[in-house]
Amino acid sequence: MEKIFKELCAILFTELKNDELLTLSFSGENSQFIRINSASIRQIGLVDDATLGLKFIANKRTCEGSITVSGNKDVDMARGIAEVKRMRLESKDILEDPFLVLPTNAGSSREIKNSSSLPFDNAVDALLPAMQGVDLVGIFANGRMYRGNANSLGQQHWFETESHCLDYSLVTKEHQMVKGTYANTDWDQGAYESYIAHSIEKLELMNHKPVRVDPGMYRTWFEAGAVADFLDMFSWNGISEASLQQGCSGFGKMRHSDHRLSPKFTFSEDFSSGLVPKFNSNGEVAPESLPLISSGKLTNTLVSSRTAEEYGAQTNYAENGEELRSPHMSPGDLRTEDILNKLDEGLYLSNIHYLNWSDNPGGRITGLTRYACFWVEQGQIVAPIETMRFDDTFYRFFGSELESVGSSAEVIPDVLTYGQRNLGAITCPGILTKEFQLTL
Amino acid sequence: MINKDLNKYSDYFSVYTELRMQENRNNRISMVNGDVMGNSLSSSSGVSSRVYKEGNWGFASNPELSDTAVEYVVKSASDNVRFMNDRNKTQCGFVLPDTCGHYEMDLTTQVSQNSQKHWIDFLKDIDSYIQEKYSQLTSRTIVLAGLDMEKSLLTSSGSTSYSMTPRSIMYVSLSMEKNGEPVELMDVFGGLGQLEDHFLDPTQFYSDIDSLADHLSRKSDGVYADAGMKDVILDADLAGILAHEAIGHTTEADLVLGGSVAGEYMGRQISSELVTLIDYANSVDGKTCPVPVFIDDEGTPSEDTVIIKDGELKSFMHNKDSARHFETKPTGNARAYAFSDEPLIRMRNTAIKPGTNTLEEMISAIDDGYYLMKSSNGQADSTSEFMFGVPLGYEIKGGKLGNAIKDTTISGVAFDVLKTIDMISSDMTWGAGGMCGKKQWIPVGMGGPAIKCQVNIGGR
């Protein structure tokens, strides 16, 4: 893939005339997808896919396009050149871009993560034994992913990684479920089997008759997967500087009224894990770590170069949409073995689902408890709870009501496959809150 | 343009095989406060094949449109299924239902296609109209988006299909400030067809924009809804999303197999007898639906799926595999978004069948309730539990419309809500831009008549 990208760069950059600038961004994958039903393989699929994005700047105008990269040099070259010609024509008569961000050459990078991955041919035999005897439904994605960026000023970045991810649910006869996501770069058969075994232990708890919990406030332990779902909401009308400037961010109270979250809450954009490239689709390289909320205080927002132009802010090379790419929440001091005792009585939520802002300026989020969510009494799990709707604000559960933060952070991978396999993960611990509001 | 006729590749097939060649083309221009913030054209094309034998499936895709790529994907998918058959012989003898159909549909516009400059000027005209007439607004966002989905299909059963299904939409979002808080409202225009078919002249949208601005102004002076269970009228937009998200998904056969609540309800009276809910394949009363599907991506001729008839749950939506499992006919609901996506069970155009009431009769039948007109973000679960945002609505007091209400939410269990329906309007309105996510995107039609029912409404 890297060779294909470099060849396309060489060809397309020579097509440019004076005062024309071109940025190319590349995204590709060689993936194996295995669908699993009832702990049996239902389908194996192989997907080879690559896309080249083109951003053409001339005459203070910007045009963008993208083409499928077929791997056939002649076909791809013809498609790319046709795109450049189209954009050249178009740039002559469209409106000027008032917040134009010109590319620069700030240095190149090449990062290739080689891992001892699971060969495609071995995947079925590696996956199936651990799940025998339970009803497991899921999808396993495996293989290499590629990202590249280059511009006509000579800057070039390449990122290549290999990973696997099994996103699954275990189901009881009564349709109670435990959800799990096992992901890594190196294949570790023992770690995989241990992870599945832990899910099966939870599934056994789901065989107890679910208890109905009344709407109200409860002490609540959120596992890391549930915390990751909350943090993910910050990418949507949250941490974006443009959203704040446009008055449609849940972080407005922190920016304008000096509201603070708990001193125990520290959150950053941190690329040190190497799960995602530091360069964005403009080829700009983000800092290794950017503190966003430090001990409860908003310290930075995500600022793209375009937002910086528009609102006179300082860019930190966020992606154009100013979404989180490699979020990291700092762990605290609550040890795993102490969680149930510290919770004593209340809710133990492994997963939350279908989150939505119910009051964005107030930071209020609604969603459902689902899958492995339990009622706890005297430090012991009693039974699963029936599905409940919650509605509460992060100013409480990450703020005034945050009692403890788990001592170990987990890596919760992004498992979305819309258009292509997503890169990246949220790294965070679980949290214990004094109160959390169930509404329905 | 992709090959319309794939018959020359049929020699590659040895067992049950689907071969699909596809190109998706997107056009998107966004304008914020008169400035062009995005201007892009993109395309994605390739070929994929899916092979079935003895209960196992193999799939492969490749981004090249060539004879070599076709041979490669058919061979790879066949190798994948052979690999599985060597290991899993428990499903020997499982045979898919055989379906065969032929259809060609090309909805490319019949007028000459316009340049990006033309469309940017089109948006600029609309933006200028809004800016001049509604200077109190704090923000104006207009987005024009087109998707051309072009597919060719050949199956080993002999089905052939070619379709060019375009959709074009324009979003207009307006914001103003009231007491320091932003107040927003959005509307969507367009539907089936290319940009040239829907957006001939910017002036034709001025009255829609006036209406949007009027609703926004009323909303900025609006009141909070009283929380609790209320008599409401859900207009087409909300009735459509309820039908799609909260009922439709629970009756997709793959989700039924995954434990959705509808699995227990087949043959039972699960709603008011007034309710007939249909996933329309391609037309209603002779009018083409927003997403017409004549042959699905498994080569099955599509037919309307009557999910609920007179209140009784009658059918799930099926692909070939689920039809085999449930020992019924496939309904033509297998659809894939991109060439590299396998077909999944997806809705097409899902709506409650119109009734006999007028909207005026329905409003006058409510003493204390709400007329809820638009939906925003929302979601539903396989239990049919749902929550939708409501960015536009009005009080109903004594059978008459009252104040606008501020943003609110509605929630509940959809099958319970259906039991409370006691009036359905006689008209039918489709939304312009329905898009559904289920590990892949897919354009869908959502809409219907207005329904009068009881629902839990959020308050302050």
From TrEMBL, chain A:
GO terms for biological process: proteolysis. Signal peptide: none annotated. GO terms for molecular function: metallopeptidase activity. Transmembrane segments: none annotated. Pfam families: PmbA_TldD_3rd. Residues 216-438 form the Metalloprotease TldD/E C-terminal domain. This is Metalloprotease TldD/E C-terminal domain-containing protein.
